[in-house]
Amino acid sequence: MSDRGHIPESRQREKPRADLQWIGKSMKRVEDPRLLVGKGIYADDINVPEMAHAAVLRSPHAHARIVSIDASKAEALPGVLCVMTGADAAEVCDPLPTWASPPVLQAVIAHDRVRHVGEAVVAVAAEDRYIAEDACDLIEVEYEPLPPVVDPEEALTSTGDAVLHPERGDTNIGLERTLTFGPVEEDFAAADLVIERRFRWPRSGGQPLETVGAVASFDEGAGRFTIQCNTSMYNYCGWMIASTLRVAPHKLNIVPTLAGGSFGSKMFVHKVPVMAAVLARAVGRPVKFMEDRIDNTTSCDNHASDRVYYAKLALKQDGTLLSLKTRIIDDYGAYLQFGVGQHGNALSQCVGPYRINSVEVDLAAVLTNKCQQGAYRGFGSEVANFVIERLVDAAADELGVDRIALRRQNFIQPDQFPYLIPTGNMYDSGNYQAVLEETLKLADVEGWRAKQAEGRKEGRYIGIGVASCQERSVFSATEFWMWNLEPGVEWTSSPDGVSVKIDPTGKAFVTLHSPFWGNSPETVAAQVLAEQLTIDPSDIEITYSDTDQGLNSTGPGGSRFTVMVTGAIVGAAGKIREKLLRIAAHLMEADVRDLTLEDGAVQVKGVPDMKMSIAELADKAHYYRLSMPEDLDLTSGLDATYVYDHPVTTLPDPDERHMGIFYPIMGHSCHIPVVEVDIETGQVHFLHYAAVHDCGTMVNPMTLEGHIRGGTVNGIGTALFEEFSYDEAGQLTTALWTDYLIPTIKESPADIVVGHVETPSPFTEYGVKGGGEGGRMGGPPAIAAAIEDALKPLGVTIDSLPLPPSKLRALIREAQARSA
Amino acid sequence: MYPFTYHRPSSLDDAKARLAASEDGRLLAGGMSLLPTMRFRLASCADLVDLNGIEALAGIERGDGHVRVGAMTRHAAVAGSAEVREAIPALAALAGSIGDVQVRNRGTIGGSICFADPAADYPAGLLGLDATINTDRRAIGADDFFTGLYETALEEGEIAVSVEFAIPERAGWAKFGNQASRFAVVAVMVSQAAGGAVRLAVTGARTHVFRVTEMEQALAANFSEEALDGIPVSSEGLNEDLHADRDYRAHLIGVMARRAVRDALAR
């Protein structure tokens, strides 16, 4: 075994093929008709008899001790059913689930101390939401303000009253650790050149159209909760919510609703369902808690990576990249929900598509008076992409070589896959040159270079940016715990399951064990099952399980869904196909080996007349088992479940020389935006945008393109507009969408020209790779590069985002002042 | 929201009577500002008198030397009006630059000017085009109408009925909108009347819309972008927020003024 680990054998059953009937077709989404006619049931559409409503009084302070709470007026208000403080809640539930070890304890309602603006201080359940909110207005809370900690680098040295969690020690460093992979010092010593830059990646987050909501009820007779909620991962770790609620896991059923958008932020919501549940148990009636927008932006799981990087890239004069060293300070806010899983994630592709021999990451996860980080499209890897791409651009500029040429020179070559990077993660396959060449063609870079030169003569500032980015897919659980200082949750499995049933008439039913959260789960399942059973997708119905019925399923997130559910359906369909063949073999008196499943019927090879349709066989399977010989070893019915394990994962090396294979299904993309900067205002306009993605075998090009375009606009938001911005007092100044600026169609390119390269994975069924996060992975570094290129005559350097007009104009003014 | 009684009168007199009868009444026009504020419980009232049922308040009419726009006319109607586009294309451009499609289909000129948001577009249109506001009681010149942050010259219970724009020789509109929300960070309406008089009004930059007399004088002598060269814009007293500090706003006033002149000359 090398220092980088070993690569297991592939378990792929279905090879990519050219003759697929449904996989690879741009089929319209199965989900759309009911959603488009307004028949989708979202969390706020859930209403149950006797349901009460909750509202939450939130902290106006970033950091304060709670001295006293007087809720007497609220309790006296007619229609109020329950007023619950943090102290009350602590008596009936435990801290919220966390992956951090040692943990940073987080309560559903703060007690003793508030640690960010918007943290819950008192919850009220009442006959309706109006009364609940009126009651919140009547509650008097006395606070003793403590020093707010807002700047991540200052948080490194906090002591005394500025420490958020004194029980963890006199520091706001939640976790600090250095991981070294390969001969970093030797590589730096051998370098001719070291590029050093400081980067600032802003806190932004997913902005779902529907906020997080839950309707919880508690059956006192059975001692059992039912929670309907727009969350994910409920069949992976929903039992953790039961632990928080102090009931046994089988005394909690989580029922998913449609998630009106997530972008990661609903990956594993815990505060809202726990809040609804503790109130429901207290009042003895079902309780609905729907966040309003401010609840959501100030106190949910939307906030994402908020990092300062001190990055060094070592390279030879001939352009050979050698080693990458980063000191990262990540502002996690007040708690560590997923531990520092976002940095586990980033280690999966931190060297980008390049051959880099060694890596060192020195991480300080600091705790500050902000909302805790959750999950958001990219989960930390999008930041690593930004850093490596900016460094490669800087290296090219420093060497005086073309930015594209330096990339080409250092790409991992097609014959080097599967390829282990220094951190131990594997890149399963790829063809980075092909993606780059295709993008250059679609972007017409030569043509734009000519227009750029013409434009400069007229005082126009046109720029072209290129980013070649990794698009890792299918996380394994390692990423959540690899950085932990103490052993905690150290799961190795992260499977996804499906249940498939063929009814007596031959119609197919698929149960998914993870939710709809804005992607196309039903379409994927229908296409793959149709392919497997040679039936029509319109003969397939898709439903979703709750935790009572659920099979272990990690759910969407980390661009997993398509790969994992494809794998699970291949597994389940295989069992069904085998049973169909065995029944048909008996009925047609043929040998199983002479049978084949084609066009929805089992056929004796070479004898066109001898066949039985799936419907005929299903009928026999359901109603005529006893007409068949007893020794046939068949049960009645035609159904199968299958839990598909992660296609290829290995564990971290005990000596931490590497972290194992944990995020191996490696997509790739190249983004080339062409921008024009109005140097008088600082405004950026897109003149063209080309993006080519390689997500392996495509299941549905149309929905993939939707992901790419939507993700790219997401990336434009991150690059140019979006920021959860806290002022010095720790107030969130962008809590509303009037200030948290989300790009609309007007801020987006007129068209995003999308292209594809298909390099199938040798490890997944059919060679599929995930593509759910792609656009946001590649957009920001490409846009930063394009803006820098546009402003090259002025000498502006881009090392922080976002770049709203005011900030870009300030950079331009500084550059103009320098040159004047 | 806090509870209130909703009224939907069908005539102006009925609206006035209902407003007068309430201790704490408010008028509802398009609701683009008032309703969100009420939803956040930052505003409330006992009686909400909805003007959307009064047909006579909406409509566009071209008269001799002027265009009259009813107070309840939607932004989309002004932006798409053949009369406005022909008589004062810059005004149509202004209306078309407000918010997004949904806002333009609901929001009204009367609602915009009576709410007098410091970042609203119409106040610059009225002041820059020398408009007159007709109320149920009197006519008020734009110079006298906008008096402060969210403040106008309207008296208690006074209702704006229409806005009358004098048709200028030429006019231009330039707006630097807040990204995504598209409220004006700085926007400028410039016009030149047949007699040569120039008006240049700026919105988004102070508590309320204002004219820049140095620029107006320079343009009256020579209506060209170059005429504005060297005219300093002080940042003193300008608005400062997350999206633009004072210096940036001052700079944008100069840039938008030149672009408004360019727009006027190109129309």
Question: Overview of this structure, please?
Answer:
- The complex is a heterodimer of chains A (820) and B (267).
- Chain A is an alpha+beta fold.
- Chain A has a domain at 495-644: Aldehyde Oxidoreductase, domain 4, CATH 3.30.365.
- In chain A, the strands form 7 sheets. Chain A has a 7-stranded mixed sheet with strand order 3-5-1-12-9-10-11.
- In chain A, helix 20 (701-721) links the parallel strand 28 (683-694) and strand 29 (753-756).
- With 267 residues, chain B is α+β, with helices and mostly antiparallel strands.
- Chain B has helices at 12-21, 34-39, 75-80, 82-87, 89-96, 101-106, 109-115, 122-128, 142-145, 213-221, 246-266, and strands spanning 5-7, 25-28, 47-50, 60-63, 66-70, 132-135, 139-141, 146-148, 151-152, 160-166, 170-177, 184-192, 198-203, 210-211.
- In chain B, a hairpin with a 2-residue loop joins strand 4 (60-63) and strand 5 (66-70).
- In chain B, the strands form 4 sheets. Chain B has a 5-stranded antiparallel sheet with strand order 4-5-10-6-7.
- Chain B is built from 11 helices and 14 strands.
- Chains A and B meet through helix 22 of A and helix 11 of B.
Quick structural summary:
With 820 residues, chain A is α+β, with helices and mostly antiparallel strands.
- Give the name of the CATH architecture of the domain at 495-644 in chain A: 2-Layer Sandwich
Number of strands of chain B: 14
- Structural class of chain A, please? alpha+beta
| Percentage of residues in helical conformation of chain B | 25-40%
Report the total helices of chain A: 22
Instruction: Order the strands across the largest sheet of chain B as they lie in space.
Output: 4-5-10-6-7
CATH class of the domain at 170-266 in chain B: Alpha Beta
CATH H-level superfamily of the domain at 495-644 in chain A: Aldehyde oxidase/xanthine dehydrogenase, molybdopterin binding domain
Q: How do the strands of the widest beta sheet of chain A line up side by side?
A: 3-5-1-12-9-10-11
User: What structural class results from the helix and strand content of chain B?
Assistant: alpha+beta
**What is the averaged pLDDT score of chain B?**
97
Low-confidence stretches of chain B: none
